[in-house]
Amino acid sequence: MALVLFLIILAIVLGIVGVVAHGLLYLLFIGIAVLIIAMVISAVRFRHGGRSANR
């Protein structure tokens, strides 16, 4: 859970810096990629947790 929260905060910071700083638009795209990775990790953990609780 802490890893997902850290990745989301990192994505937000990278996105803000990418939008505000001129010439650093690539940071926005890196932030979007990090956010997608965090969402995938969260979905995998949510699915895995649901299966083990039903056993």
TrEMBL record:
<keyword id="KW-1133">Transmembrane helix</keyword>
<keyword id="KW-0812">Transmembrane</keyword>
<keyword id="KW-0472">Membrane</keyword>
<feature type="transmembrane region" description="Helical">
    <location>
        <begin position="25"/>
        <end position="46"/>
    </location>
</feature>
<protein>
    <recommendedName>
        <fullName>DUF2207 domain-containing protein</fullName>
    </recommendedName>
</protein>
